[in-house]
Design a protein that fits this description.
Strand content: 25-35%
Number of helices: 5
Mean pLDDT: 95
Number of domains: 2
EC number: 1.7.1.13
GO molecular function: preQ1 synthase activity
Strand order of the largest sheet: 5-3-2-12-11-9-8-6
Family: Belongs to the GTP cyclohydrolase I family. QueF type 2 subfamily.
CATH architecture of the largest domain: 2-Layer Sandwich
Distance between the termini: 29 Å
Order of helices and strands: EHEEEHHEEEEEEHHEE
Subcellular location: Cytoplasm
Largest sheet: 8 strands, mixed
Helix content: 10-25%
CATH superfamily of the largest domain: GTP cyclohydrolase I, C-terminal domain/NADPH-dependent 7-cyano-7-deazaguanine reductase, N-terminal domain
Low-confidence stretches: none
Keywords: Cytoplasm, NADP, Oxidoreductase, Queuosine biosynthesis
Length: 274
Amino acid sequence: MTPEQSPLGKPAAYSEQYDASLLFPIPRAAAREAIGIRAQLPFFGTDIWNAYELSWLNARGKPQIAIATFFIPADSANIVESKSFKLYLGSFAQTPFESADVVRETLKRDVSAACGASVSVRLDQPATFGKLQFEEFEGLSLDRLDLDTDVYHPDPSLLKATFDEAPVEETLYSNLLKSNCPVTGQPDWGSVQIHYVGPQIDHAGLLRYIISYRNHTGFHEQCAERMFVDILHACKPIKLAVYARYTRRGGLDINPFRTNYNLPMPDNARLARQ
């Protein structure tokens, strides 16, 4: 089950009749091994998926709509390839369901089976759309820095920290994250927030490091985990959390969160670009 075998980047027939077999799981293990992560994960966390193009028919044939949010544990065996996720959600369009609860339980069952872990699912229907949160990342913007760079592939040597001074606690963020789909090469645009306690991280080096993903090919989850591992190894923070929010593509946005200490799960507030 590799990206090359998935529906990604290939012509596909869109079925509007429910079909759980459309979900295409991809094991996390190979990408993690490539960055030195073995069985013992150096983090925990979740992948938050927001699906804005979900519709089905009620028992009388009237279309229903909702925004679905999926919370996928970081220790699940698999991720789900995004185009297969879109095809799967599209298969609900002409399928009758007794209620939104039945839809939610169906989504939970199928996505949990594909990921190999218990996935939580929330449905927001039109009456609650206006209550969904929008906000921007808290913290100090790295994008304020005026700097030169010419490195556009991930380079952890850009990361520096001051080890001979007292540790600090900081929340930093950048809206300049870009990576590319590992199969189609299409750009994935995102923002990333980094909270840490430990030796002071050089801000310019950290921003150059984030920018260095610009020509990198990798799934969203893998990019966040690589950032986490590189910062942990190079800067040796005592506590570290990395939270990336990517703009939506195909009606889906993907938002990986990784941490090595006990933090509340992010509130899933949507950034303006999402």
